[in-house]
């Protein structure tokens, strides 16, 4: 450990991953499905299909690396701006995933969680999500979080609104609104913050992903397009992560 002075009451931003340990929580921005398909002269839907298969690679990579939480950005609140046919394709793949993969996840002791605004999703998808979450709720090997119709600004706005309402109605005092209290209003309240964010496809931006939770995450960008992502790519990212010096503002 360093010789830096012990700071009492300093927020614990480490998520349990300090000093060369592997990440506890890895979050992935799964990008590049469309380009992957276009490069092959195929429709974007083909890329999305292949992309949904790469999820298996990420899960296996996470389990092999001893990761506890894997969050996958599957559909952003801005992705509604895509052509309706593409949105339909993506929702269709989600239905297929929830119908076909949950039994396997359960067998592997994986817990499934969904974050993001549920109200805009079709009812049958919400039913499938409820069933999947209930079925896997006791599983402990890995928590797989799917960010669906997720946008950090919407999440932060909702949290601010909920706390403001609580104060106005006298259920909460202003003095109680600390960073920890704020974090409790987020969809990730019971999860550690991501230690590592991986974005595929060469883009280097967050695209409205977990902006509060990633305040101190290590960021990694790879040119690999999401459908080509493998468990070895995951392991490589974890190795690079272990070489990073996470300082959290200390010297
Ligand atoms: C990621 O691939 C999947 C989603 C955003 C749903 P893209 O569809 O964004 O692929 P590119 O970025 O156009 O290649
Ligand atoms: C981010 O990818 C969202 C997901 C991976 C689900 P996008 O392809 O939508 O992001 P931008 O539009 O390039 O920033
Ligand atoms: Mg993209």
Structural write-up:
40% of the residues lie in helices and 14% in strands. It is α/β, with parallel strands linked by helices and 251 residues long. It has one domain (22-151, 192-238): Decaprenyl diphosphate synthase-like (Undecaprenyl pyrophosphate synthetase), CATH 3.40.1180. The protein has a six-stranded parallel β-sheet with strand order 3-4-2-1-5-6, with helices on both faces. The longest helix has 24 residues, at 84-107. The protein is globular, with a radius of gyration of 19 Å. The N and C termini lie close together (11 Å). 33% of the residues are buried. One 3-methylbut-3-enyl trihydrogen diphosphate is lined by residues 29-31, 73-76, 79, 203, 205, 207.
Average pLDDT figure:
93
Count of DSSP strands: 6
- Order of helix and strand elements from N to C terminus: EHHEHEHEHHEEH
Bound molecules: 3-methylbut-3-enyl trihydrogen diphosphate, magnesium ion
């Amino acid at each position: 450990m360093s010789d830096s002075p012990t700071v009492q009451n300093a927020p614990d931003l480490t998520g349990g991953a300090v000093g060369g340990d592997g990440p506890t929580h890895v979050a992935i921005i799964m990008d590049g499905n469309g380009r992957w398909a276009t490069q092959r002269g195929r429709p974007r839907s083909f890329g999305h299909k292949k992309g949904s298969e790469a999820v298996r690679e990420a899960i296996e990579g996470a389990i092999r690396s001893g990761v506890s939480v894997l969050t996958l950005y599957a559909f952003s609140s801005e992705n509604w701006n895509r052509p309706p046919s593409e949105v339909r394709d993506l929702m269709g793949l989600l239905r297929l995933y929830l119908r076909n993969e949950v039994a396997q996840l359960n067998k592997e002791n994986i817990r499934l969680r969904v974050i993001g605004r549920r109200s805009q999703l079709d009812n049958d998808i919400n039913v499938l999500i409820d069933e999947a979450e209930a079925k896997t709720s006791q599983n402990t090997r890995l928590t797989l979080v799917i960010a669906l119709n997720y946008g950090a600004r919407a999440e932060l706005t909702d949290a601010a609104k909920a706390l403001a309402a609580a104060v106005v109605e006298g259920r909460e005092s202003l003095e109680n609104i600390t960073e920890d209290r704020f974090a409790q209003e987020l969809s990730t309240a019971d999860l550690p913050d991501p230690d590592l964010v991986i974005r595929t496809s060469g883009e280097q931006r967050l695209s409205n992903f977990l902006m509060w939770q990633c305040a101190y995450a290590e960021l990694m960008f790879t040119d690999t397009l999401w459908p080509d992502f493998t468990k070895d790519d995951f392991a490589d990212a974890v190795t690079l992560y272990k070489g990073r010096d996470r300082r959290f503002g200390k010297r």
